[in-house]
């Protein structure tokens, strides 16, 4: 017999082996030493990550190392809390190299080890940040504006790449979409790597929509004379905002946040070439080409007293009165009504006799049709010339009475009419001196 049995594990403290011949009890003793139990087997309890990207570190999660010893005892220790008598290769504090195929856990005292297959692929994106500043305050409807800012892409292997935020690869998403107008409710930009779901958040502010485009609806006057004021007629300003909303307002009644240059209340200068409508808040503007030519006649009046009472057939009599010609630029000229330039007409003509039906004189500037009206009264025609038709006695003795024979008084009037009346029988509105029925007092 051999004691202790060679098929049973030795107990710590055992000091000898005894070999005995059972028949004679002859024995032989061999001194031995039995120390502490030793590690003789390692295994893993629990699952953990076995697929990695280059540069990632080992991640054991809650997995444990099961340590079995020669005395049959067993101990379980978290892989993340192993004592320094164990080594892990590759080190869990260093990023993994692409192509690494296994983890080896070794007990340094006994060189007992356990191998775990792993896969290490390409490095993965694990951090995103921004380099450079860009616009973070927007009006509703505006699109994201990244300027020259770049996305700094860091990977698990420590490599770094910088890419313009305006030209990101398709593996990245930007929310909200940079091609769509921002909503007032948007509070942040989120840039995400689709493969790893690594993201970076940037706070932004989105306020009320702002004016970003101006245009004109409807036509209006664009050719002016110097001194005239802008005339928009029924045209409207179409105001478009960053959120795509649209408003139409009469150009004659714009809100105070808009300016019009030149002022619509001042006369235009001949040098003006355009109208500029500007939104003062955003400096958004719209320009309209115009033409400003020479000043034009825009008002006529009379200086002096004009004769307004006429008999039919008489011609207009302006005396020393003048036509005051005012132009769009405020200039003024005075011209005699008897010597007007050819660009003016007088109706009725001053060279023709007036008709009894005429009620006014109209002086008109033919180019601008600017006119001035003067009320007049044209009454019955008046006698304006007398002559004698026929011969009669012109030699008398004192005391004889006038003898007209068959002679007639020819009465001509202002309207050109003519009447012949016997000198012996003419109307009472005529007088003959000396009295044709009395005696001549003197020789005449």
Structure overview:
With 444 residues, the protein is mainly β. It is built from no helices and 38 strands. The chain has strands at residues 2-3, 16-21, 26-31, 39-45, 51-53, 64-69, 74-78, 86-89, 102-107, 112-117, 119-121, 125-131, 137-139, 150-155, 160-164, 172-175, 188-193, 199-203, 205-207, 211-217, 223-225, 236-241, 246-250, 258-261, 274-279, 284-289, 291-293, 297-303, 309-311, 322-327, 332-336, 344-347, 360-365, 371-375, 377-379, 383-389, 408-413, 418-422. It has a three-stranded antiparallel β-sheet, with no helix packed on it. A three-stranded antiparallel β-sheet has the order 4-6-7, with no helix packed on it. A three-stranded antiparallel β-sheet has the order 8-9-10, with no helix packed on it. A hairpin with a 4-residue loop joins strand 14 (150-155) and strand 15 (160-164). 17% of the residues are buried. Residues 439-444 have low confidence and may be disordered.
Secondary structure topology:
Blueprint: E1 2-3, E2 16-21, E3 26-31, E4 39-45, E5 51-53, E6 64-69, E7 74-78, E8 86-89, E9 102-107, E10 112-117, E11 119-121, E12 125-131, E13 137-139, E14 150-155, E15 160-164, E16 172-175, E17 188-193, E18 199-203, E19 205-207, E20 211-217, E21 223-225, E22 236-241, E23 246-250, E24 258-261, E25 274-279, E26 284-289, E27 291-293, E28 297-303, E29 309-311, E30 322-327, E31 332-336, E32 344-347, E33 360-365, E34 371-375, E35 377-379, E36 383-389, E37 408-413, E38 418-422
Parallel strand pairs: 5-11, 13-19, 21-27, 29-35
Antiparallel strand pairs: 1-2, 2-3, 4-6, 6-7, 8-9, 9-10, 12-14, 14-15, 16-17, 17-18, 20-22, 22-23, 24-25, 25-26, 28-30, 30-31, 32-33, 33-34, 36-37, 37-38
């Amino acid at each position: 017999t051999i004691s202790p049995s060679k098929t049973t594990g030795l107990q710590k403290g055992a000091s000898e082996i005894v070999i005995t011949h059972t028949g004679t009890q002859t024995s032989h003793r061999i001194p031995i030493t039995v120390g502490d139990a030793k590690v003789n087997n390692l295994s893993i309890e629990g699952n953990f990550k076995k697929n990695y990207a280059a540069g990632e570190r080992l991640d054991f999660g809650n997995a444990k190392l099961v340590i079995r010893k020669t005395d049959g005892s067993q101990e379980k220790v978290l892989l993340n809390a192993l004592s320094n008598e164990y080594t892990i290769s590759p080190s869990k504090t260093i990023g993994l190299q692409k192509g690494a195929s296994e983890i080896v856990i070794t007990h340094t005292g006994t060189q007992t080890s356990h191998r775990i297959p792993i896969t290490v692929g390409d490095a993965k994106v694990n951090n995103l940040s921004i380099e450079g500043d860009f616009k973070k305050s927007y009006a509703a409807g505006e699109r994201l504006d990244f300027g020259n800012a770049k996305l700094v892409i860091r990977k698990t292997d420590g490599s770094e790449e910088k890419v313009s935020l305006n030209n990101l690869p398709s593996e990245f998403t930007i929310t909200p979409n940079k091609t769509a107008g921002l909503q007032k409710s948007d509070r942040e930009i989120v840039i995400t790597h689709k493969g790893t779901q690594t993201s970076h958040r940037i706070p932004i502010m989105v306020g009320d929509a702002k004016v970003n485009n101006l245009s004109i609806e409807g036509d209006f006057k664009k050719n002016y004379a110097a001194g005239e004021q802008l005339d928009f007629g029924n045209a409207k300003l179409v105001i478009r905002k960053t959120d795509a909303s649209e408003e139409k307002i009469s150009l004659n009644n714009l809100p105070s946040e808009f300016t019009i240059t030149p002022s619509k209340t001042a006369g235009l200068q001949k040098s003006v070439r355009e109208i500029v409508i500007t939104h003062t808040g955003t400096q958004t503007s719209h320009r309209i080409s115009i033409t400003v030519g020479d000043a034009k006649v825009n008002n006529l009046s009379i200086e002096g007293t004009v004769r307004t009472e006429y008999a039919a057939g008489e011609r207009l009599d302006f005396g020393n009165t003048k036509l005051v010609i005012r132009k769009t630029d405020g200039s003024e000229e005075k011209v005699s009504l008897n010597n007007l330039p050819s660009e003016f007409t007088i109706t009725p003509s001053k060279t023709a006799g007036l008709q009894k039906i005429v009620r006014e004189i109209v002086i008109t500037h033919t180019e601008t049709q600017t006119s001035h009206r003067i009320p007049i009264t044209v009454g019955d025609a008046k006698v304006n010339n007398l002559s004698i038709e026929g011969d009669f006695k012109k030699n008398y003795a004192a005391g004889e009475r006038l003898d007209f024979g068959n002679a007639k008084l020819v009465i001509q009037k202002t309207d050109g009419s003519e009447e012949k009346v016997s000198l012996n029988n003419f109307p009472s509105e005529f007088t003959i001196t000396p009295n044709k029925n009395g005696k001549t007092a003197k020789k005449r």
